[in-house]
Specification:
mainly alpha; about 120 residues; single chain; two-stranded parallel ribbon; 4 helices
Length: about 120
């Protein structure tokens, strides 16, 4: 009669490795939990940890975004006024000087919640 495939020491190693694999899977799963960004209405003028509304922010506030200086901030405002507002954060890619890398650095800090106003000479969004 075949008693077993593993010796008692081998079984202990297998159980140890299975437990380590289970703990590793749990820890890895916990790292993937994303914390939602703070509510834009809770900022009250403090931009640390807050979302900046692209359709309402002044250039000075936009300058606080990563990779956005005075020139890009003015360009954001110019394009916003030209279009009558942004429809989504992805519209920032159309701003001169903002590429995919800068867009991804800025994305966690901005939001578009204001309704888009029609640009001068247009009939609406």
């Amino acid at each position: 009669m075949v008693r077993g495939v593993f010796t008692p020491d081998e079984r202990a190693v297998v159980f140890f490795l299975a437990g380590a694999l289970l703990v590793g899977a749990l820890v890895t799963g916990m790292r993937r939990v994303e914390v939602p960004p703070p509510d834009a209405s809770a900022c009250a003028g403090d931009t640390v940890g807050c979302m900046i509304e692209l359709n309402a922010a002044e250039p000075e506030l936009l300058e606080e975004l990563p990779g956005i200086g005075p020139v890009r901030a003015r360009e954001i405002v110019r394009l916003r006024e030209e279009r009558g507002g942004f429809r989504s954060v992805d519209d920032l890619i159309d701003v001169r000087g903002i590429g995919p890398v800068t867009l991804e650095r800025v994305r966690p800090h901005v939001v578009v919640t204001d309704s888009v106003r029609p640009a001068p000479g247009r009939d609406g969004p």
